[in-house]
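Below: protein 1.
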Amino acid sequence: MAPRHAQSPARKSLTRRGKAVSGLALTTLVGTALWAWPASGDDHNSHPDAKHGTPTTTSRPDAAAEAADPEAAAAFRPIPGLSDAARKQIPAGTRQVLVVTGQGVNATSSAVILYTRAKGSQNWRPGPTWAAHNAAHGWTKDHRYGDLRSPEGVYALTDAGGRLAAPRGTRLPYDHNNSFVAHGTGVEGEPLAGAFDYVIAINYNRVAGSSPLDARRPLGASKGGGVWLHVDHDGPTQGCVSLKPAVMKELLRTLDPAQRPVIVMGPPGH
């Protein structure tokens, strides 16, 4: 739920891992299985937001390794601060989890940490903590178009784009498109210029495998859409999560489809 931008039916220079792909090579994933990297009307000033996710089972530490080596058992470190329900929705094959924790249910500021783990390990390692903004009215478990709240939940991160070209090393499919423009002003009257220079779609009520500009809403327009990670404009969003430009570029270089990245977001204890 960022500020509104112009929707464009045409996609320009969609790149996958640095190679051009013509047209919309989309996989219409309308179901709810997060592990299937699915979709989940539009809440940023003209960009989309929706939830998806039938919980999947998280992989468990190797019991034999624990019994044989107590010190190794201590290395099985879960991601802190998450509810059991959220942990169970993280797919077993996921090795990158972006955790967004709001300061409160109605707060507009959040802390963001990228957790990673090696293949076969349950030792989640945190990266740096980044400051972020979320929606003007905080968080909700039942997001609706225009409610000025960010949707809580666990969502896949499969697609990116922006007005500027993808930073070198970007791994997510990236739609470089001049239609990524935020018009008007933010909730607190701040200018929105550059807010959509870099965007990572959050798979809430969207078709995974498509440009963030894709306006299709599998759960219906009333459930909102266009919930993105995007460049911070020094104020709360309409439903998105916004980060400084340098952080957005770092995430674009780091998030790897092969590691099935997801975002877990909400107030404390989400």
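Below: protein 2.
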Amino acid sequence: MSEKIVVGVAGASDRAVQWAVARALARGQSIELIAVVGGAVGAVGEGSVVSAAASAAQDLLDEHVARIGVPVTTRVLTGNPVTHLIDASKDAALLVIGSDYRGPGEGPARGAHGIRIVAGAMCPVVVVPDLDLDAGVGVVVGLDGSAVSERALAFAAAEADRLGEKLVAVSVWTPLTAPRNSLAVYPEVYLANMQAVTEEVQAVALAGLASDYPDLVVERVVEQGYPSHIINARAHGARMAVLGTHGRSALVRFLLGSISQEVLARLATVTAIVR
């Protein structure tokens, strides 16, 4: 298995590089920094522009290298950033990208490039927002009982253990909805059973965790509501959030599961998407 962390370096990547370096140092991994010069269309005179942009990109990578204390390689590529970073993920243990999102009211959410990179990547992807997260507490993981959420749990538990943080396991259930039923009053027995079933599913998922991480503190959260809203609310003030996403079909490559996509659209903290 590869022990390389690939970092996509662009304008909002300083925090992404810092995060990747900290993880690489803790786990004995190497780093590859990749910058992609995109947008070329073959216009007359474009060659010199591309060459200058590539040179500037290499200068940026060299500045990062000068501050990094782990084995590092660099590449400057030209073409489609989405395609190149997805291709680079094939041989990586982890792909890390930055985001220009700075929180509610502070600018745009990450655009389509980030969503497509996460959707198509062949390894877990960590998206690092442009936020000061040093004071965050805990690693939040979304659990729904699926096989992919088990892999998200494994990733989140390892990160919580590495960081010396508690693990916050979040499972969300949503009452059945139907046209003209948005204001329905549900029977108490139905609501109680939904809560109980979700608690049981979460308990099964967490059952073997103590044997792998005997010192890990686990906080269990089971709530009614909409998953992305509750996960992001819990992720505010956390060191990291971890979610699973299903498959890489032709559709899913560009449309993540709605929960993952909604969480990424309004990043509350460093967020990992695991398959």
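Residues 133-275 form a domain with the Rossmann fold fold (CATH 3.40.50.620).
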